[in-house]
Hints:
- This protein has 106 residues and is of the alpha/beta class.
- It folds into 2 domains: 8-65; 66-106, no CATH class.
- It is 23% helix and 11% strand.
- The protein is built from 3 helices and 3 strands.
- It has a 3-stranded parallel beta sheet with strand order 1-2-3.
- It is elongated, with a radius of gyration of 17 Å.
- It starts with 10 loop residues before the first strand and ends with a helix.
- The relative contact order is 0.16.
Amino acid sequence: MRKEISIITRADDCGSNHSANIGIQKAIEGGVLKNISIMATCPSVEEAARLFIQRTDICFGLHFVLNAEWDNVKWGPVSNPFEVPTLTESNGLFNQHPRYFKGHQC
């Protein structure tokens, strides 16, 4: 008896930057993706919303973020950073590494 092989694909980091959004869009158009995780705190989330708002064939999930590990793209909380000071550095953005929380208890 042969078993059917299935694969579930998920695009990560949607909304993080323009390149990720375009790559995800191309993968959807190519029939590779049906599941996307969105980073609501990131700089290109509004672009992602415009790109994918009409897609009823895609399952969207939330990608929780508490740090911004990349060197050239940064983000902070959706809340006012001054209302969540234990999550951010003095510039109002998330720290680059999760180790930040060892010295900054929430």
